Amino acid sequence: MRSSPNTKQPIVLPFLGCMGDPHSVPGVGDNDLMATNPGAISLPPRYSDKAILAARPPKQPVDPWRPYAYLVEAEHSAQGRIEDVATVFLTNKECPFRCLMCDLWAHTTDTTVPPGAIPAQIDYALANLPPARHIKLYNSGNFFDTSAIPPGDYAAIAHRVNAFKTVIVENHPKLCTEACLDFRDLLVGTLEVALGLETAHPVVLDRLNKRMTLDDYTRAVTFLRRHAIDVRSFILLKPPYLTEEEGLDWAIRSLKVAFDAGVQCCAIVPTRGGNGIMEHLKNEGHFAPPSLSSLEEVLEAGLALKQGRVFVDLWDVENLYTCPDCGPVRGERLRQMNLTQRYLPPVSCTCSS
Ligand code: SF4
Ligand SMILES: [Zn+2]
Asked: Average pLDDT in the 180-187 region?
């Protein structure tokens, strides 16, 4: 799962910077959570689609003919340059998966949008955005879910984004099929697919209700890369059921799993509440957001791997600040590290955070 735009903020931000066979990860079995959490006396609870849906607050009103947000921000490109990337948050039918931590459904419709609506949304966003070199078409679900993005619109979509060097779409590993190749063939630029690995922790991945195994993930990465499609992955920092230390450790392990599978870029997303079931988990003691310090450590460790680009999601980083003196400075350090993909010295402060 990726970050979600804060729609309370101005929507144009120029120039700112989705279970596995346990044996897919050597040494990790179904009791691994217990092994890393000796105090645990049972496996973490499993929540059904029904329970996850029942906990939701209401959706936000959306217009099928308008993207619900759009922005331009700078990103360190695959070529090593800092380049502007437009992101269009497409309004479309809600994702059929019910991941435990997902809040992306909040800006979706209940039914498939009309033919032509997605191209119209792209037109609207591009008319209101400054130029950019790359574009993300994020649809709060899976681009190759035919109920979300009508395949009859693929050609019209491609036509609108053919000025961009890279076209990045999000997709579930189980939906990486020939349709990806059909869309790739319509593009002038490079197609990049963003896959949510979320976590390589097999038990937690299972409890995230993503209905995906680690083998599904690696199979999808292999398929895409074999067909000249670039891949980035979303990794959660401190998903439910993990302590701070375990959350950091598994984020780093997940980075390695993703890079070893063949992805070229990873984005670390601090796990957040806000979708109803996460608040329940918090009350039950199964979830708490990660610390700023863990976010710093995972970026440092990810960059040190030197296996590809690593970003940390900073869209709501202010929520992780605990000190008014060092919080913003530390946030800026992370922003600069994202942009340069280089280690910067840590910020010192009299506080202990
Ligand atoms: S697969 Fe669907 S439910 Fe799961 S994180 Fe992605 S958008 Fe959310
Ligand atoms: Zn401080």
From this structure: 98
